[in-house]
Every structure is written in C-alpha cells, then in structure tokens.
Amino acid sequence: MGMRLSVMVLAVLAQLAACACAEEPAGAAIPQPKPKAASVSFTDVGLVEFEAPPDAWVIRYTLDGKAPTATSYACCTPIRVASSLTLKAACFGPDGKSSAPVAVECVRKPAEQKDAKPKAAINVDFSATPDLTEWALRAQKDAEEQYPIMAEKLGSEGFSPPRQIMLVFKDDPKLQIAATGGTTIVFARSWIKAHPTDTGTVIHELAHVIQSYKRKVPGWLTEGIADYIRWWTWEPPERRGRINPARAKYTNGYQDAAAFLYWAEKQYDKDLVRKLNDQARRGTYKDELFKEYTGKELDALWKEFVESLGKK
Ligand SMILES: [Zn+2]
Questions:
Q1: Cys-Cys link to 208, which of 57, 171, 180, 183 (CB 3.0-4.6 A)?
Q2: Distance 147 CA to ligand 1 centre (A)
Q3: Which CATH code, of 1.20.140.10, 3.40.50.20, 1.10.260.40, 1.10.390.10, is assigned to 116-212?
Q4: How far apart are alpha carbons 205 and 142 in whole angstroms?
Q5: C-alpha 286 – ligand 1 centre gap (Å)
C-alpha cells in the first residue's frame, strides 16, 4: 500500500516537474542539463544519460569534480564512467553563455566476481566534426569490444590498464592521422575524410593507451607492437600489407615490425609480444631479450624472417 502510494506521489511530482519546465518563457532562461538520474551505481562501466539539450546548446562535462568550461568535452553519447566520481555537466550556448553545473554521483560497487577482462569506459567527442558521427560511433563500438581482448594480450602482473578513455575528433589542419597522449586519443578529421576505411587506426592508438610506456622504448618496438595488435589480432588477413623483403626492416616499426613479431611468436615463443611489452612497460627492454626468449639474436632472427618470406 505504502509502496503504491509513493509511486503515485512520484508520478504526480514528475508531472509537476514537466509542467514547470513547459511554462518557462521561451528563450529567456539558460537551460540546465537534465540527467535521467541524479546518481548512477554500477559494477563495471556506468552510463550517465542526459535529455537532449535545446537546439544550439551543448552539454559539456568533467569527471574530475571541476566545473565544466567551454573547452570541456561535449556529451555526444551516454557518458561512460569507470570509477566512483562526481560527474559535472553544464549547458553551453552559441553565445558563450553557460548554465550552472549539475552534478551526477557515480558509484562503482565491488563486483561479486573479479572480472579478468575488465571493460573500459570509452567516451567520444565528435561535436566539432558532426560529419564524422557514424565513424566515431563505430570507433567507440570497436574500441569497447576490443579493449578487454587487447588488455589481456598486453597484460602483465601488477599492471591495471587505464579504464577511462577519451576519443576526440578534431578539424585541425596541423593534426596528422591521430595522436595518443595518456588516455586521450585525438583523431584528425582530414585523415578520416580521406581514408574512411582506415578504422584500424582506432585499434592501433588504443594499443598505445594500454602500452602505457613511461620510459624510453625504441620507437620501432612501440609502433610494431601497436601494429601487431591491429593487423595480427584484429584486421582481416586480406587487409594486411605485403612485406617487401628488399626494403623491409624491423627498425621501420609498424607493419614490418608487426609481421616480424607475429612470425617470431609463431616460430619461437607464443608469449613473445606479451613479454617484450612487459619489459618495455617496466623500462627494462633491451634487444638482447630476443636472444633470451628465442635463442637467436635480433638481427639473425630478422634475417631468418626475411628468408622465410621468399619461401611462401
Ligand atoms: Zn603509433
């Protein structure tokens, strides 16, 4: 009975709230973000949803407790959250006006079972490139699906991969392809417009987020491992480039190094990439590790790989 009554009271209150909004004089007030719930609790990744703001208004938000500014990320999809925090959102208008911030409490509860493959909270801001909406949403989906698999492949003891990740799309002529800094990946609109099928760039950049190298690692290995993840664990085989034995060198990084690592793994040590990545992450990578793991020096191993290409 009491339960029923309170449901009715809530329904009436909700109606009252709806009426109050409708009676506001049009154009006069600055709209406030309307979260679908004042708090969100979750065990893995939480979703914070807002009602769509009025036309020409954008909801911007922060996850660090600070008030959002005109340069904070724009809300383009339900906002994914990976940990307990206070999300703050405000509406920004075309004339620079903004509302007071609205807070949404996000509470992560301990999971009953520890998930060996935790998901990541991957947000996208394509507010500056509305023509990339479809591309950005697919990037978000690919990243969400692939992240746990990648994190396991590049896992090491005592390391938890970052779980709060941002994909930003910018229309900036100075930007080439994409760049990853910490847990933020910035994509260049110009590159995506010219290469719309290059969706694997997302996987490559995401690998850099998981690599989380803090100390100096040879560039060829960093890029080789990222391309190994992209081309040898994600892309369909027919999309892989052919390695030209006359010009290829592992020091070129990228696809040359990726194909080499894949081959060496198959031939000598099925855990080679994980082990190399672990050493790189700890800042203890050195070329001599190839000898330790495969029994062969790096350059000898490369020579053997190039010879194997001619035999196919
Ligand atoms: Zn890279």
A1: 180
A2: 16
A3: 1.10.390.10
A4: 12
A5: 20
